[in-house]
Design brief:
The complex is a heterodimer of chains A (about 450) and B (about 160).
Chain A lengths: L1 E3 L1 H8 L5 E6 L5 E6 L1 E4 L4 E4 L13 E12 L3 E17 L2 E5 L2 E6 L5 H7 L1 H11 L7 H9 L5 H16 L5 H28 L2 H4 L20 H26 L2 H15 L13 H22 L5 H5 L1 H14 L4 H6 L5 H4 L2 H24 L14 H13 L8 H27 L1
Antiparallel strand pairs in A: 1-9, 2-3, 2-6, 4-5, 5-8, 6-7, 7-8, 7-9
Helix pairs in contact in A: 5-6, 5-10, 5-17, 6-8, 6-9, 6-10, 8-9, 9-10, 10-12, 12-15, 12-17, 15-16, 16-17
Chain B lengths: L1 E4 L4 H9 L3 E6 L5 E6 L2 E2 L4 E6 L4 H8 L2 E6 L12 E11 L11 H7 L2 H7 L10 E14 L9 E5 L4
Parallel strand pairs in B: 1-9
Antiparallel strand pairs in B: 2-3, 2-6, 4-5, 5-8, 6-7, 7-8, 8-9
Chain lengths: ~450, ~160
């Protein structure tokens, strides 16, 4: 429950049909009973109707009034949870009593959604568990799934796949080198997810975020106490070790030019949230993400397969690079208060709502224009125009961002659609290449 | 009017069985009452409520002072015809030896009132601390009963002896 202004709380209470009067009885047990009431927000008093003389608090005794509401939902449970608590001394008024309200608290899930309410209780929950010597538990698989943010791997699969099909179009696809490049890219991606959580935990950004969603606010495994920082650091280091090891092997066998591409990828992934650069804090998270999950991965995979450099994967990956940057961009919208509080000045923190929405529209149009322009310029095969089929989805995301900008939970379907937009556009783009290769 | 009875009266159990929400009043560290709306569950002898560790203040209060009171007052949240009201005083204890799974023994009773709990449990990974829960066990010793629901009238009082 959160503290409320007394006048506001009484005004809220007046919408309830009855109150529950509570006080501590002479035997030390609390007593609570239903009472009729009328409230005056301006006078900060609540008048209670007639009481059984045997159940009256003493003159001047501190009492509490509670007003509670739910709406039953048969077959489900209930919703519309809200309640108000008022405290103050009670004095007799004929058969009833008057409570001079001194303090108030309450919760209304219409104001503070349940999930935010639960997040706000996190420090108390952690303290309580610490005192019990207990820790929250999830299965190992779920913990790894959460800690690595596994579902976001689509961001890696698309550019790596693109690098592979471009190599195939050039007649140089090689399954082993492709798979090794894919595993290295996955390792970097999962490692950077864990590194990002470690740094956002250290700088307080994730702790300050009370409206996380499945798409934003980090994995929360550190905040929930599911994983220790030490275990997270170990997992992160292991993933980077796999990436570096595979990168060195590929560079040694496929060409040392790959070393530069891999080094850029790893440096970008760490500089994204690690000091001193902390690029995401400087509003550079989107360009870094676009570069890393666009040209760097596509070129790296192409190089691993072909053993040489080409502009083709750089240019071809631009549309998916823009779309993955927009995934980060939209997913940061619910985080903006927590990010601002912790000094993480992302583009979303720097921009007004109107600027954020305009930025989305311009960039997503840019991605689709890029697809058409590259075909027109003969850079990419005409079949990649298949990717334009997702334009309606982009329109839906644009509308959702405008409609639900201020509501993290209502924005969730939009964030999901935006991720699907990147995935579907990228897949269609890759399929366009595959058709061009086989036809 | 006062009656001595070994168990909760059947009419009170009927209210507890259908109540979606009751008002649990505990005593805080300054000696003042503080009330929490919670789902009451009962096996006929003991009243059970559960609390996530996220909302653990009430648990701390009960550990410091186990004297509590639970009322069933809301005709919407306690759908019985004709409507009655009850206030149950008793002593509470916190069961927290296994906050991860211990409370799940109450799931059948909880599910009967809030079937959506099964859906939420499947999403446990999303709000893991919500499902780290302590159980509040109330051993009732007195019931105030209003047959017609008008709590301004004198209550029928049941003194419960021998409840364990």
């Amino acid at each position: 429950m959160a503290k409320l202004e007394v006048a506001d709380a009484i005004a809220r209470a007046e919408a309830y049909p009855h109150a529950v009067l509570a006080y501590v009885g002479p035997d030390g047990y609390p007593v609570n009973i239903a009472v009729d009431f009328t409230g005056s927000a301006t006078a900060a008093v609540v008048d209670i109707g007639a009481l059984d003389p045997d159940l009256r608090p003493a003159d001047g005794q501190e009492v509490e009034l509670t007003f509670s509401h739910i709406r039953p939902q048969p077959g489900v449970g209930y919703d519309e949870r809200r309640y108000v608590n008022l405290w103050g001394p009670a004095t007799p008024t004929g058969a009833g009593m008057r409570v001079a309200v001194r303090r108030a608290s309450g919760w209304d899930e219409a104001d503070t959604p349940f999930f935010e309410y639960a997040e706000r209780g996190l420090p108390a929950g952690r303290d309580y568990l610490d005192e019990l010597g207990a820790r929250p538990r999830l299965s190992g698989l779920w913990t790894v799934f959460l800690a690595t943010r596994l579902p976001f791997l689509t961001a890696t699969l698309i550019p790596v796949g693109l690098g592979g099909v471009i190599a195939a179009r050039d007649g140089a696809f090689h399954t082993l080198w492709f798979v090794l490049a894919l595993v290295a890219a996955i390792a970097v991606h999962l490692g950077l997810n864990m590194a990002n959580d470690l740094f956002d935990d250290a700088n307080g950004a994730d702790a300050a975020n009370v409206t996380p969603t499945p798409f934003s606010g980090g994995s929360r495994v550190l905040q929930y106490g599911l994983v220790t920082r030490r275990a997270m650091l170990t997992g992160c280091a292991a993933l980077y070790a796999v990436a570096v090891g595979l990168g060195l092997y590929l560079a040694a066998t496929r060409g040392w030019g790959l070393l530069g591409i891999g080094a850029v990828g790893i440096i970008l992934s760490l500089a994204y949230s690690a000091p001193p650069l902390r690029l995401v804090h400087r509003g550079l998270g989107e360009p870094v993400t676009a570069l890393g999950f666009g040209p760097v991965m596509a070129v790296g995979t192409y190089f691993a397969c072909t053993g040489r450099w080409s502009w083709q994967p750089v240019l071809a990956s631009l549309p998916v690079a823009l779309l993955i940057a927009l995934v980060l961009y939209v997913n940061q919208v619910p985080d903006r208060a927590g990010d601002a509080a912790s000094g993480k000045r992302t583009l979303i923190v720097r921009f007004s709502a109107a600027q954020v929405q305009a930025g989305y529209a311009i960039t997503v149009v840019g991605a689709f224009v890029c697809i058409v322009a590259e075909v027109a310029a003969g850079v990419t095969p005409a079949w990649t125009l298949l990717a334009l089929a997702t334009v309606p989805l982009a329109w839906r995301v644009r509308n959702g961002l405008r409609a639900h900008y201020t509501d993290p939970y209502a924005l969730m379907p939009t964030m999901q659609s935006n991720i699907v937009l990147h995935l579907a556009t990228g897949l269609l783009f890759v399929i366009g290449y595959v058709i061009a290769v086989v036809s | 009017m006062s009656d001595l009875t070994p168990l909760l009266p059947p009419s009170v159990i009927e209210l507890l069985d259908v109540a979606l929400v009751g008002e649990l009043t505990v005593i805080d560290d300054s000696g003042q009452p503080i009330t929490y709306p919670l789902i009451p569950l009962s096996d006929g002898n003991v009243i059970y409520l559960t609390s996530s560790v996220l909302f653990s203040r009430k648990l701390r209060h009960i550990k410091a002072n186990p004297k509590v009171c639970l009322s069933l007052t809301d005709p919407v949240a306690v759908p019985v015809e004709p409507f009655h009201r009850a206030t149950i005083q008793g002593d509470a204890r916190i069961v927290e030896d296994d906050v991860h799974e211990g409370w799940e023994r109450l799931l059948p009773m909880w599910r009967a009132k809030e079937p959506a709990i099964d859906f939420l449990l499947k999403k446990r990974f999303g709000i893991p601390l919500f499902f780290e829960r302590s159980v509040i066990e109330i051993t009732p010793h007195r019931v105030l009963w209003w047959e017609d629901g008008r709590a301004s009238e004198p209550a029928r009082v049941y003194e419960l002896a021998g409840v364990s």
